[in-house]
Specification:
Helix content is 45%, strand content 16%. The chain is built from 19 helices and 14 strands. Helix 7 crosses helix 18. The longest helix is centred in the middle third of the chain and has 16 residues. It starts with a strand and ends with a helix. Bound molecules: pyridoxal-5'-phosphate (PLP). Pyridoxal-5'-phosphate (PLP) binds next to helix 12. It is an enzyme of class 4 (lyase).
Length: 426
């Protein structure tokens, strides 16, 4: 598989390099130089999830990894289902939260862990990442127990929900969690400093595992096919998919699925008040505003880092950006939609409810709607209980971790202190 740097097209890398490096020169994103196209999508959809996903990913990766190898990676990564649930006539929810950390990031995180192990040159790897909640948990669980890979996760002390903290700070082994005396921006600044330190980067084999990594997006393509496979042929002919978006990795993966041949009629780019993209699609002007905090906090992003990939793909395929549906939803409106869905017998948290609301508004006669449920309702228990006046149960993994002891260490917001930690955990 060849990929090129969107910003500096002459930089070409293999799948292995793209996975190890994350980003190209000048912070450019890698993009596949060629996309395979599946002619017989119906036959592909008739396969089971792991077999089909292996075929898709193997076609993308090409001869760099054998088909058997890709199959065993997918088998290890995708150990949980992605079911669709009928919410009302012609509208389905795609539940992406049945993995160990109850959010869709488990798919990408776990496949990235497999990919990194597969393309490693035997040297040390240290994953360093800052999290405000979800990503840290997915990365921690994905890399837990893997040989030769150390994971260091920074998070702002006292600023993530206690439940979220328990989910990834109770693992131990090769997972080291550090509570920084500062906010999320301070954590991100420390990570950036570490990546800017070339000597340190080399010494400990630094890698970020963030959503920029192409292996994460590739894994996410597979569940769009999985959703379509659970519908009748007639239903999936006129399919509209609504994607609750933050950094826009999920929507990029959906558009890639379409490019590979999955017949999706239309996508809806759904955001909360952080609406840089819907405004851009409306006015043609890219004008990020300061990020505002919402109840769908995993989408509180005003400078979405995957957007250049969407522009690149649409341009390559001749898809006008005006064919993308769009919209933003306020906290009040998403709460209303959580209640609306509950009244229809479906429990949903605000991220999914935002996608549902815009789908419901924009779906036309004869179309089938699918909205992505990116997190388990219990992962946002405080918000959901507040909206519904409920006391929802914690599912198994959350309940188990909630009872375990925190293993994090506290650290000052200081780069030298972080360096010591990074060297110590080797
Ligand atoms: C990360 C996340 C999103 C946003 O996904 P992107 O791929 O960054 O657009 C939406 N919902 C939840 C629950 C998330 O964790």
């Amino acid at each position: 598989m060849k990929l090129y740097n969107i910003k500096e097209n002459d930089e070409q890398v293999s799948f292995g390099q793209a996975v190890r490096q994350g980003l190209g020169r000048n912070q450019g994103l890698f993009f596949p130089a060629e996309l395979p196209k599946f002619d017989d999508v119906d036959a592909l959809l008739a396969e089971d999830f792991v077999t089909r996903s292996s075929k898709i990913l193997s076609a993308l990766i090409g001869d760099e990894l054998s088909a058997d190898k890709v199959n065993s990676m997918v088998d290890a990564a995708f150990q949980f289902p992605a079911p669709i649930k009928s919410v009302k006539d012609g509208v389905y929810a795609l539940e992406l939260f049945h993995g160990p950390t109850l959010a869709f990031k488990d798919f990408g995180g776990r496949f990235m862990a497999q990919s990194l192990a597969a393309v490693s040159d035997g040297g040390k790897i240290t994953i360093l990442t800052a999290t405000s909640g979800d990503t840290g948990a997915a990365v921690a669980h994905a890399f837990y127990g893997m040989e030769d890979i150390n994971v260091v996760i920074l998070y702002p002390k006292g600023k993530i929900s206690p439940l979220q903290e328990k989910l990834f700070c109770t693992l131990g082994k090769n997972i080291h969690t550090v509570a920084i005396d500062g906010d999320f921006d301070a954590c991100q600044a420390l990570v950036k400093q570490a990546f800017d330190d070339a000597a340190l980067r080399e010494e400990i084999g630094l890698n970020s595992a963030n959503s920029i990594n192409i292996s994460r997006l590739m894994a996410q393509i597979c569940y769009y096919f999985e959703a379509a496979s659970q519908m009748s042929k007639q239903e999936r002919e006129n399919l509209v998919v609504s994607v609750p978006s933050g950094n826009f990795g999920n929507l990029t993966a959906g558009l890639l699925a379409k490019a590979l041949g999955l017949p999706i009629k239309r996508f809806i780019a759904a955001t909360n008040e952080n609406d840089t993209v819907p405004r851009y699609l409306e006015t043609g002007k890219w004008e990020p505003k300061p990020t505002v905090a919402t109840t769908s906090n995993a989408m509180d992003v005003s400078q979405p880092n995957n957007w250049p990939r969407i522009e690149e793909l649409c341009q390559l395929k001749g898809w006008g950006l005006d064919t993308l549906g769009k919209g933003k939803v306020s906290d009040e409106q998403s709460a209303e939609s959580v209640r609306d869905l509950k009244a229809q017998g479906y429990l949903c948290e605000p991220h999914g409810a935002i996608a549902y609301r815009l789908l419901d508004e924009q779906l036309q006669d004869g179309e089938t709607g699918l909205f992505l449920c990116t997190a388990h309702p219990a992962k946002f228990k405080e918000v959901v209980d507040d909206i519904l006046g409920s006391d929802i149960d914690l599912p198994g993994p959350l309940a188990k971790h909630a009872a375990m002891e925190l293993l994090s260490e506290d650290l000052a917001n200081d780069f030298n202190a972080l360096k010591e930690v990074l060297r110590r955990v080797q």
